[in-house]
Amino acid sequence: MSQKILKIFSILLVVFTLFSCTKESIDLNNLNETIIIRHKNADMPAYVHGNASEKVFLILLHGGPGGTGLQYRLNTIKNQLEENNVVVYFDQRGSGNSQGNYSESDVSVDLMAEDVLALTKVLKAKYGSESRFFLMGHSWGGTLGPATLLKDQSDFMGWINVDGSHDPKGVYDRYRNNFTNVANEQIALENSVSYWNNVLSLVQNVSSDYNDDDFFKMNRESNKAHEILTQDLGLNQENTDVDNGFTYNFFTISWNTTKIQSILIEKGLFKDVSYTNQLSNITIPSLILWGKHDMNVPLSYAYEAYNNLGSNDKELVIFEKSTHSPMFSEPNLFANKVIDFINQHK
User: What is the chain's alpha carbon radius of gyration, rounded to the nearest angstrom?
Assistant: First the structure.
């Protein structure tokens, strides 16, 4: 055998050994990996954690637009859901630590939904075609989730909507109506009367037609309202003070959050996008989880989602002590509901 052939043979043997060891070294009972999804000029990290012994993956769509995947790797999501199955914390296009060299003109909700479907293909290629998926979206993730499922729901065993907006177009008017209703209720209870009178004044002075500035005034006020309601009604605080073992690039996140929001808003996210009339086409089992006192995405969305989803197997759970993020304010109940749903339909 010539020295040249022997050298090539040796290199191939080393490469084969490396790939063999890598595949065999994967601990399916305790996955702890980061994979990069490269799709249409974007590189999007997916942080894969948990028990893959049954090849059941829960893909988590974060809020925003422009949030981060690992901001959810806290409390019972980390300690209970990952013991039951794999949780995939996905940094969406223009979010978290995602990168890319794509044109702003290409960005859309549809493209971001295609990114999620690309993620499922990569997960199948890496962990096996028998892999099964559940999709969970929180807040903005509740917009991206339906957009994804309406493109292709065939690979998903179930849909979990957590305080998510299937109808961004309707948020502006619902803010006005919900603020008015809640303010009047709280004033009647003599809770923080001065604050709620100021809220009524704010709502009365916003434009009756959609306006970006007025939208963000109400959006910011919803976060303040959560603080007031939590204090006056004795709601549970949102516990997010847990180290998830990962440090994000702060500058990347800050730039991404502002940028992706601006792009989608300029393209009419809150003026044109609504999936309400298409929810009947989503027929996979569905679980709707909602904070009763959510001012970001009002409770009316929960009932509308439940009534319009086309699944014959659907459940609505209202978290009595929560605002916008029941996974952080009532984590044990949240985990139990999600685990039961996955176990029932996997």
Answer: 22
